[in-house]
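Lab meeting, action items carried over

1. Structure of the two-component assembly. Owner: GW. Status: complete.
Input record:
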Amino acid sequence: MAKIVVIGAGFAGQTAAIYLGTRLGKKHEVTVISNRDVFGYVPSWVWVGVGHMKPEETVFKLKPVYDRINVQFVHAAAKEIHPDPGDQYVLGEEIGTGKPVRLDYDYLVIAPGPLLNFAGTPGLGPENGFTHSICSLPHAVKARDAYLALVERMKKGEKVKIVIGTGHPLATCQGAAFEYISNVHKDLLKRGLRDKADILWLSNEPALGDFGVNGVQVKRNGIVMRSEEFIKSVFLDAGIRWQVQTGVKRVEEGKIYWENYEGQEGITEFDFAMLIPQFKGQPFKYIGKDGQDISAKIVNPAGFVLVDGKYGLPYAELAQTPEAWPARYQSPAYPNIFAAGIAFAPPGPISKPFTNPNNFQIAPAPPRTGMVSGMIGRVVALNIVDMVNGRQPGHSERMTEMVAACIASMGDSLWDGSAVAIVMRPVVPDRKKYPNEYGRDLFISHLEMGTAGAWMKFMLHHTFLWKFKALPGWELIPE
Amino acid sequence: MSEQQFSKSEKFWMNFKLYQLWRFIVLNIKIYTIAVQSKWR
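Predicted assembly:
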C-alpha cells in the first residue's frame, strides 16, 4: 500500500487530492495536510472585498468531502519535510493544540499556495501595514470593511483617493487586482459616488494589460489586437487613471513610495489601497537524514520547489526555449516529490524583466494560479497514479503548452455586470510552435468584454465549487 | 475598437442581452473544448 501526502488544499492541492482519492483512495493511503479546514474559492474573494458576496459563500469544509472520496485529512501546518530515502516524512503542528504530527509518505505533493510576503515591502498589508489585500479570505473581509467605511465618508461628500495594483516590484497576480479595481469602480457607480473617488491603477507591469504574461494578443478581422489597447479602453471608459512600470518600495500611512523604469522616485497619496504583495514559497524546512539543512537541493532562494525545468537561462534565451518550462513538476533530486500551483519554481519570468538605472528590478513574476494551478494538480496526481501502478509517469503539460481562460469580473450583476473573457494559448509564449511576434495561437486566444462574461463568472463560481466538492460529474468539469 | 474609448456601437453590443446570450454559448463551447483537450495529456 502506497502512502501519498498532499500539502495544501487550494486549487492545486484540492485538484490533486480529488484525483488521487478517487483513483487510489480505496487501496492506498491518501492524506491531505492543510492549515485550513476549509477550501476557499479565491476568484470570488474579489466580490467579498466590495461586500457583494458573503465570505461563507466562498468556502466549504474539507473533511466531509474527503470522507466521501477516501482521503484522510489532517488539520495541521506542515513545518518540516524529511525527503531522504528510507525514512520519508512530513512533520507538522496540529492547529489548535500545537501537537506534533508525523506523516510518512511514499509520494509527496507540495501545493501549499504562496507565502504572502508583506514583509518584502515595509508598511504593506492589513496586519502590520497600511494597505489591504484580497489574497486571503480574512484579508478580503478586512478590505471590505475598510472599503465600506470609505463609502460612508464619500456619502458625506468627502472626495477620496483609491489606489489598486501591485505592492512589490516583483509581484504577480495583476489579474486579481484588475478585477478588484473594476468592481470598486462599478460599485461606486451604482452607489452614485463615482465622482467622489479618484481611482489609480499602480502596477509593476511593463505595459497596461500585461498581466505578467507578456500581454494577450488576439486576431480579429485580420488585425492583431493587444490587451494593452483593450485595457486602456476599459480604463479610459471607467475614468480610471493608470501608472505602470512602477515598483512600490514602501508604504506609510496614506503614502505609497515608489520607483519607476526611469529611476524616478515618487509618492502617491491614498485613502484606501489594495496592493498585491510579492508571493514566495512556504518556508518549510527540508532536513536530510543526518539532520542537515538540504533546502538548496529542493527549493530556490525564494522557497519555490525546483522541478524538471531548465533553470538559469537568461530571459532572451528562455523566451526562445519552450522546453525549459517544466512538464511533470517532479523534483529531479527526489523523483517522488512533486510541486503544484504557485509552489513550483518557474524557470524565469514571462514578461520582460527590467532593471532601472538605479539597479532596481521591476518585473512581474509569472502567474500560476487558478486554471494553471488546477491543471498542474491534475498532471501531478495522474503521474503519481501511474507510478503507484508501476508505470512511468505518462502525463505532462508545460505552461508553454497550456491553455488558460480567465474571466475578469467587472461587476457581479447578472443584468448590468460585465467581465473580460480572456483565453490564451499557450500561457507562456512558444515562439517555435507559433512563429509570430507573440508566440501564441492567435486563432484560439480571445479577448472579449460584455454581460456574457458576468454570466460566465457566476457560472464558474458554482460549477467550480461543485467540482472541488467532488460531487457527481466533477470530472466532466475541466480544471 | 478604436485606440481610445469604446465606441457607442461596441458598448451597445456589450450590453445587448440577446447577442450576449449568443456570446455566452460560443465562449462556453470554445473554452470547454480547448480545456477538455488538456485533460488528454
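2. GW to write a short summary for the group page. Key points so far: The interface with chain A takes residues 1-6, 13-15, 17, 19-21, 23-24, 27-28, 30-32, 34-39, 41 of chain B (CB under 8 Å). Helices of chain B lie at 8-15, 17-39.
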